[in-house]
Amino acid sequence: MAFDLPELPYGRGDLAPHISEETLNFHYGKHHNAYVTNLNNLIDGTAHADADLEAIINDASGDASKAGLFNNAAQVWNHTFYWHSMKPGGGGQPHGKIAELIDRDFSSYDKFAEDFKAAGGGQFGSGWAWLVLANGKLEIRKTPNAETPLTEAGVTPLLTMDVWEHAYYLDYQNARPKYMDTFLAELVNWDFANQNLSDAG
Ligand code: MN
After folding, report:
1. Tens digit of pLDDT for each residue in 114-162?
2. Which residues have their alpha-adjacent CB atom under 5 A from ion ligand 1?
């Protein structure tokens, strides 16, 4: 049983002008797709051939002999989570439960936004910025390369922002801060964060 490239929750051009169709053609159509292809090649004929994605990620995490498997499996999961972390017409102030928790745990949306962008900007090289629920409290994480808070006990990812250059270079060149400002102002999907909170119970 091979993995398929998950469907995008919107059309490839629907995040424009903030993230272009050209970026989605590469980032989703080439990069994400390549992680799926690599993962399928790595699990073919192995004990992981019929495992679910989260089980593969957790099994390979922290095992240097399974770094290739971890990197590709986690990047498949991280990218699917990232596409859902944005929506056309998204961005701006949070609403619902996530808004309450942001005020409770960061004191204000503005402080959250500052800390979230500091995490993304402070991730040297490739990686991710995350909003997570950690033992009942909102926290921000940054992870390098394919690392994901999915592997942390007691932690539920709520949102992520890809800060690999391939996420923004065609649209923003080296201006990662401008991409991060736009992610929060125009794209972030608070409905998805609320759904993940609700699923976490
Ligand atoms: Mn990416």
Report:
1. 999 999 999 999 999 999 999 999 999 999 999 999 999 999 999 999 9
2. 162, 164
Give, in order, the Cα–Cα distances in Å from 40 to each of 6, 47, 53, 140, 189: 14, 12, 11, 31, 30
At position 30, the amino acid (one-letter code) is: K
Between the CA of 104 and the centroid of ligand 1 the distance, in Å, is 31
Stretch 75-99: mean pLDDT, rounded? 98
> Going by C-beta distance under 8 Å and a sequence separation of 6 or more, which residues neighbour residue 142?
119, 120, 122, 123, 127, 128, 129, 130
CATH architecture of the domain with residue range 96-199? 3-Layer(bab) Sandwich (3.55)
Whole-number Cα distances in Å, 61 to 82, 117, 122, 131, 194: 20, 26, 23, 20, 27
Query: Six-digit token pair at 100?
Result: 């309450």
pLDDT tens readout for residues 10-39: 999 999 999 999 999 999 999 999 999 999
Q: What's the 32 CA to ligand 1 centre distance in angstroms? A: 7
Architecture of the domain delimited by 21-84: Orthogonal Bundle (1.10)
